[in-house]
Design a protein that fits this description.
The chain is α+β, with helices and mostly antiparallel strands. The protein is built from 8 helices and 24 strands. Among the domains are: 55-154, Electron Transport, Fmn-binding Protein, Chain A (Pnp Oxidase, Chain A, Roll); 198-330, Electron Transport, Fmn-binding Protein, Chain A (Pnp Oxidase, Chain A, Roll), CATH 2.30.110.10.
């Protein structure tokens, strides 16, 4: 991010460095009652600059085996919660022989010194989540197993503050298009977003008209394939399925306001390319326009899809990927509870918030 961009953000009061000192600026009463002073449910950050992130450790019943899947698991859905695990990074016998797995979210080294629901975990784990296997897909001898969350717990807030906030959620007015997350599902989602999720931009085109829209439910299956999830019923979903060629671009953190504003594009028709802010370079194989803030991109061909809950999970073959010049910090976001936990632990976190 350039000094001019950072200065502009500071001037517009949307830059927020989270430290214990912020407590003096926030609402003390709100902190006492809810345990939270972070003012936004999802907070943008620079992916590469997050110090002391959590690690995700996979365990199974009746085994001492554990595996760090922090960078290899794919978050693909939130109603229900869906996680993909690929045989490109995880032993297939482990995935095929176990219908249930446990994920422990830890800071530092994992110590298998406790159990939860018969799964090995770490007594110091900040969160734990149980998942059941729902599907397996195979692509050119490489498999991805899809798991659905069904129970979770966390220590981001104390028990009393969790109770108060869950009560507030029951009476909270939400926009008509906002998906309600009942019961324990909301905690599962909060935990999933304690790992920074890249907000990337998908480009689709029919050769004349274009759409660009953001996504944070996606990730690579090894080197040759990719998975990404879109809401069933949206125009974006129909465009991906109908056009079958997509480009997904990681973008610079400085673009977070523009990228968030593109959320409405999930429901629009294809547009003239001039309606979008585009990069001077186009994708190499398809010749698609890239978002102005692109850092790197993948060109992909749609292979098939799988429906579960409100999500249609799309699977792609990667045909080209490229890093652009002068790449900056990558846009990602985390959930409010984890941001607050970091603050309470004295971990400095630079967040970029949407000005209300």
């Amino acid at each position: 991010m350039s000094q001019n961009q950072l200065h502009s953000i500071l001037q517009n009061d949307v830059y927020f460095r989270v430290t214990q000192e912020h407590l003096a600026l926030g609402s003390q009463l709100k902190k006492i009652v809810t345990g939270i002073v972070i003012p936004q449910e999802y907070c943008c950050l620079e992916l590469e600059q997050l110090d002391s992130p959590l690690r995700v450790i996979l365990t199974v019943r009746n085994s001492l085996y554990s595996e760090d899947i922090t960078t290899s698991h794919i978050f693909l859905g939130y109603k229900p919660l869906i996680v993909g695990l690929s045989t490109a990074s995880t032993d297939e016998s482990l995935l095929s022989n176990n219908d249930h797995v446990c994920l422990s979210f830890v800071q530092g080294d994992f110590k298998s010194n406790a159990k939860w629901r018969d799964f090995p975990t770490d007594s110091a784990a900040v969160a734990t989540m149980l998942l059941r296997k729902i599907e397996r897909k195979n692509f050119d001898g490489q498999s991805i197993y899809l798991f659905e969350g069904y129970q979770a717990r966390h220590k981001f807030l104390g028990v009393l503050h969790q109770f108060v906030n869950n009560l507030r959620e029951k009476f909270r007015a939400r926009p008509a298009d906002n998906v309600a997350l009942p019961g324990n599902l909301f905690d599962q989602v909060r935990i999933a977003y304690s790992i920074p999720r890249k907000i990337s931009v998908i480009t689709v085109s029919d050769g004349v008209l274009v759409n660009m829209f953001p996504t944070d439910l996606h990730g690579p299956i090894g080197k040759g394939f990719y998975a990404g999830s879109l809401r069933i019923g949206g125009n974006a979903n129909a465009q991906v399925e109908g056009l079958r060629r997509v480009v997904i671009s990681d973008v610079d953190t400085a673009s977070y306001l523009q990228v968030y504003s593109m959320g409405k594009n999930h429901m629009i028709d294809l547009q003239n390319e001039l309606r979008f802010m585009t990069h001077h370079q186009r994708s190499r194989v398809f010749g698609f326009p890239l978002p102005e803030w692109a850092l790197r991109y993948r060109e992909m061909i749609h292979l098939e899809s799988f429906d579960h809950g409100i999500h249609r999970i799309h699977f792609y073959q990667i045909v080209h990927n490229e890093e652009l010049e002068n790449a900056g910090p990558t846009l990602a976001h985390i959930q409010q509870y984890y941001a607050q936990w970091r603050m309470d632990q004295g971990l400095t976190t630079t967040l970029f918030l949407i000005k209300k």
